[in-house]
């Protein structure tokens, strides 16, 4: 999860994410970074920072980095003019010039990467990012790393959250939702969805729920000591389970 960048200037303290400048010295969670330069220090995001001499990840120097061209790309990827890094690890045989980050995926002109590891057996020329963890090439659709089975490639589309659909079915991640209707289906959040007949939580039907009146709340709600995240005309629900009848 990305840390929020905080710039708080209090007399002798400056905080930049997990890094702190105190009395012209740089610290990572209280540990001094030896030989660092506070005047040129720059927090880049997540665990990355740099000064005029070095690049740091989680308080450790990255070796053989070209500092001037180094930049953080997101999703723990970074690069300089020569190399690409995932965290503190240099990725081998990768093209820095063409490398880009798409959600949690990295891509150069030759390969696609997921959390810093090359995805095997994917066609780079037809590769597309669809949404969330959904990707495809000319042969397959994935909710990576799982391959979708019996999916129609031409009609598949990302809906929202962890939901996608083709002309025949709705999917939660890589799992087909039983008896789902793709024409009427709507994703209510990452885990809840419904069509004209059923309500689903993750990849299971919520039995005896009322699709027409079912709604999900962005924040949990309470009735005395009962917590709920959704409701229909008959019940209150939490995590797809009935917690109280009306």
Short description:
The protein is an all-beta fold and about 250 residues long. It has strands at about 10, 15, 20, 25-30, 30, 40-45, 50, 55, 60, 70-75, 75-80, 85, 90, 100, 105, 110-115, 115-120, 130, 135, 140-145, 145, 155-160, 165, 170, 175, 185, 190-195, 200, 205, 215-225, 225-230, 235-240, 240-245.
Can you offer a commentary on this structure?
It is a single chain. The chain has 246 residues and is mostly beta strands. It has a domain at 1-61. Helices cover 0% and strands 45% of the residues. The protein has no helices and 33 strands. It has strands at residues 8-10, 13-16, 19-22, 25-28, 31-32, 42-45, 48-50, 55-57, 60-61, 71-74, 77-79, 84-86, 89-91, 100-102, 105-107, 112-114, 117-118, 128-131, 134-136, 141-143, 146-147, 157-160, 163-165, 170-172, 175-176, 186-187, 192-194, 199-201, 204-205, 215-223, 226-231, 235-238, 241-245. A five-stranded antiparallel β-sheet has the order 1-2-3-4-5, with no helix packed on it. Strands 6-7-8-9 form a four-stranded antiparallel β-sheet, with no helix packed on it. A hairpin with a 2-residue loop joins strand 14 and strand 15. The radius of gyration is 24 Å and the shape is flat. Mean pLDDT is 92; it is low at 1-13.
């Amino acid at each position: 999860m990305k840390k929020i960048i905080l710039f708080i200037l209090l007399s002798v303290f400056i905080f930049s994410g997990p890094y702190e400048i105190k009395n012209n010295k740089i610290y990572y969670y209280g540990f001094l970074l030896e030989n660092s330069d506070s005047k040129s220090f720059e927090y880049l995001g997540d665990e990355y920072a740099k000064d005029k001499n070095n690049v740091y990840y989680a308080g450790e120097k990255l070796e053989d980095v070209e500092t001037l061209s180094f930049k953080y790309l997101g999703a723990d990827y970074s690069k300089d003019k020569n190399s690409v890094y995932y965290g503190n690890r240099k990725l081998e045989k990768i093209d820095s010039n063409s490398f880009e980050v798409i959600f949690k995926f990295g891509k150069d002109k030759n390969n696609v990467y997921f959390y810093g590891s090359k995805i095997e057996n994917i066609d780079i020329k037809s590769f597309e990012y669809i949404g969330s963890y959904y990707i495809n090439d000319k042969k397959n659709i994935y909710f990576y790393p799982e391959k979708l089975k019996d999916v129609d490639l031409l009609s598949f589309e990302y809906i929202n959250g962890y939901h996608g659909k083709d002309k025949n079915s709705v999917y939660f991640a890589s799992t087909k939702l039983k008896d789902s209707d793709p024409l009427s289906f709507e994703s209510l959040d990452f885990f809840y969805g419904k069509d004209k007949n059923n309500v689903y939580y993750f990849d299971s039907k919520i039995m005896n729920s009322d699709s027409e009146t079912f709604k999900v709340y962005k924040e949990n709600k309470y009735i005395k000591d009962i917590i709920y995240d959704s409701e229909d005309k008959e019940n209150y629900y939490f995590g797809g389970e009935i917690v109280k009848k009306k």
